[in-house]
Design brief:
The chain is of the alpha/beta class. 18% of the residues lie in helices and 30% in strands. Strand 11 and strand 12 form a beta hairpin. The structure holds zinc ion (2 copies).
Amino acid sequence: MKKIIPAGLLVLALLSAGYALGKGKPTPLAEKRDTPVHTPTFKSGEWVIARGSVHNHTNFSDGCRTPEDLAQQARNEGIAVLAITDHRQGGVCINDKFCPDAGGVGSKGSGYDEYMSALANLADQSQSPIILPGIEVVPYIWNERSPKILVRGDNRHFTVYGITDPKVIAQMPVTRGITTKVQLDPGPEPYNTFINYVRDHGGMVFQAHPNWINPSDYGVGEAHSEAPTMLAAELLRLTGIAPIPEGIFSAGVPGGVWDLALMEYLSGYRSEPLWAWGEADFHCTSSKNPNLTLRTGTTLFYLKDLNRDQVYDAMRNGRMVALMGEVFQEVYVSEFSIGDKPVPNKVMLGERVKLTGAPVIRFGLNQELTLKEVRLIRNGKVIYRGQGSNFEYVDADAARLGIPAYYRVQLIGEGPMEMANASLLYTNPIFVDWTR
Ligand SMILES: [Zn+2]
Ligand SMILES: [Zn+2]
């Protein structure tokens, strides 16, 4: 039997699809472990490598943990860097008149102040994990159909870091409103306006879950969007994208949207590279989903010292490795270097080097693994396949062609290629130019 729900509530349900309403009642964390499940930091050469969990929710939006409990959960799991990004949301308007509350941090007048000061307090108290305060934003939604509403853009989510002023968050150029009249697909424009605003205020923006489509039908209205994957190539100041865990079939594959953006950078169309990382998007562990953790997707940060400024520096400069799956949980990249003679720096993630001769690419993990497939990718194409995690490859072809190039490595472990269960590791690229 069909339930009869007032139209206003229906639209509200439609617009808040995927989010719980308002600040929820927290679920206390049951366990406080003395020894973490995994190693939070590794030391390798000059680097401190910190295991990070980014894009996570608390009970300030639709997560179930208080920020304090989430930090304790990070200690339990062996997470050294914890980014908290609750939904920004707030009022969502229909025809600029009816503006129901769609939940999230901005639902109350003091929302952003309260949220940011709670995260600042937590960051002051917590040496480990290092807390990165952030927020998740849906910049723009529109209605593509009448009279039965079809909401688009509801699945285009971006996580923002490095902005702590609640006023800057409150004034973000985002449109959480639709009209009952049909609107056109706006293209990349509102997303670039939003990203430029964040970047101009010193922040960073990462595209979240690039494969998510979030279809739902509420009778009088429907929310259904295409996966926003390809959008990233048109967002020239986007800092990064999350191929792990939800972009493994799109953003992360050789020749996918991440490679497209890196090619744009090589050609000069884009002034900075697009970086990749792994996100957790943790909300809650439930009896239905007991396996959800802060390490659904993991980012390893390569730091000179273990502090927040260094983490931001790693985010801005691509000194990150993205991974998921049990086999990679105690693994880090101990070598990824390129030179035409031996190089002193063993980890050159995100760097740009000039060479004269054929590049020698060296790659290694802290423990040698035999994997389903090891791929060396140059300019979006796989140029070497193997199974041993530690390898050396001389790319005489690239030197002969003399084309600007970037190299990245993808490791695939055994097991099903599913969003929830895959075993994958992605490095960020190293760029090569030639001096002749
Ligand atoms: Zn999201
Ligand atoms: Zn989220």
